[in-house]
Design a protein that fits this description.
By secondary structure, the protein is α+β, with helices and mostly antiparallel strands. The chain is built from twelve helices and eleven strands. The chain has two domains: about 100 residues, PH-domain like (Roll), CATH 2.30.29; about 210 residues, no CATH class. Strand 1 and strand 2 form a beta hairpin.
Amino acid sequence: MTTFTGTYFDGRTSAGRHVSVSFNGSTVSVRNDEDGFYVEVPQEQVDITAPLGRTTRVITFADGARLETDDHAAVSTLEQMVRKNRYAQMLDALERRWPLVLASLAGIVAAVLVTIHVVIPVMADKASRLVPATILDGASKQTLTMLDARFFGPTTLDRETTASLEKIFNELLADVGGASFSYRLELRNSPIIGPNAFALPSGTIVVTDQLVALATDDRALAGVLAHELAHVEQRHGLRSLFQNAGVFLLISLLVGDVTSVTSMAATMPTLLIESGYSRDFEEEADLFAGEYMTQKGWGTRPFRDILQSMAKEVGDSEVPSFFLTHPGTDDRLAHLRNLDDP
């Protein structure tokens, strides 16, 4: 039985009466032994106002009477017994335990950040290595078809230049391997995109005529191709795609919207276009290209020069982030320059 004390108001006068209250599981009994006052109220005729901090609790009865008390613990027990204000009780408990709430929120935020920056990248890397070559080929072909329709036209390079590029590309493949992917060099003309090169997950590497025109010598083009080949070998495209999808899925789960998740697989070509490379991926590809060039005895200067020229030329905000894959050019150049130092 729950018992506590309070002040009873009959609803007809403003006078209050000090009373003791008890609840036996079905009725609330209110009494004052000094004047013989006693009233018994069925459970279904009892209502309890929601808790608000440490303010006085109020219990109301169907006949207009009310009971006020500062015994919060007793009223909370009564609320549970008569099944009133369940959500308000939870909120009140949280308000009274705000340090614990803040600690819990901090823990949730930390867990989300760890998931985004550690767990998802690791899972994305593992997932990228499980995608069959047939899916890579299909998605890459669809992506290139979409890009051709919007940004690219046939190459205008002459046969001699084309043959020279093919030779550079084949020598690169012979030097660094790359048998695990179906590598293919594609040349495109694109005044819209300008001087650029990019790699698709299947091993297709696209180079624009404008980039070829920007290159001062074959070593610069070899550096660019090595950079793009590194993106393929390290599966940067797929890892970026899966990381972005993982973050999207996490946010969808947190906000309770999972309906849009089912459509992600069908939009893989579009996601490949919109997913740019992270700074870490760019630096990893730069390191691969830089080490290749130093091993050839060229140094990284030709590659650094063309990166600087590309950074000046490529700045159109209307093109997809897929083509704007050169973040932090100054830092990248510094890292490449370090490879040349003894």
